[in-house]
Amino acid sequence: MAMETCFRVTTIATTATANTRQQHPPLAHSRQKLSVLAGCRPGSRRSTSSLSTSSPAGGRNRRANRVVCNAVAAVAAVDEASWDNLVVGNSNPAVVYFWAPWCGPCRMIAPVMDELAKEYVGKIACYKVNTDDCPKISSNYGIRSIPTILFFKNGEKKESVIGAVPKSTLAATIEKYI
């Protein structure tokens, strides 16, 4: 599952005369600012806008905005309403991570799950279930301790890993099902 991360890049560049360039290095007049844009969609392009003004040194300042978007795989949250559709009804292998916000080992393994989602994008679907918000799913699959990672293929539970395990352990288990 891929999510879109977008940044607005604003640059200010100065075009100066020969006298001004000798006094100030060209990079001294350049700045870059990044801000996250909400609602950016894959494949969308925003037009660049520019603003030109005169500077006291006789040069021109030019401000340009452009949007830079990168697709990033992420672990999507699943709840009881979307469970059947996303996990059980999925023909691709799925990795489901059961966690809770108060669980220390869950917070330790979360970046590992994000890395695995990026590495196996298109091959597996990665999801997470908050056990506090979805106790019915947790009890249906016998989740008694967290973090627990379940591996599904063709909608059936194939294997489970309990605890904060190394990335290599999870990667080896994923490799069995892709």
Automatic annotation (TrEMBL):
InterPro entries: Thioredoxin, Thioredoxin-like_sf, Thioredoxin_CS, Thioredoxin_domain. GO terms for cellular component: chloroplast. The keyword Acetylation does not apply. Gene3D superfamilies: Glutaredoxin (3.40.30.10). Residues 40-178 form the Thioredoxin domain. GO terms for molecular function: protein-disulfide reductase activity. Residues 45-55 have a biased composition (Low complexity). Its main location: plastid. Keywords: Chloroplast, Disulfide bond, Electron transport, Plastid, Redox-active center, Transit peptide, Transport. Residues 40-62 are annotated as: Disordered. It is found in: Plastid, Chloroplast. The keyword Ion transport does not apply. It comes from the Eukaryota. Belongs to the thioredoxin family. Plant M-type subfamily. NCBIfam families: thioredoxin. This is Thioredoxin M-type, chloroplastic-like. It comes from Iris pallida.
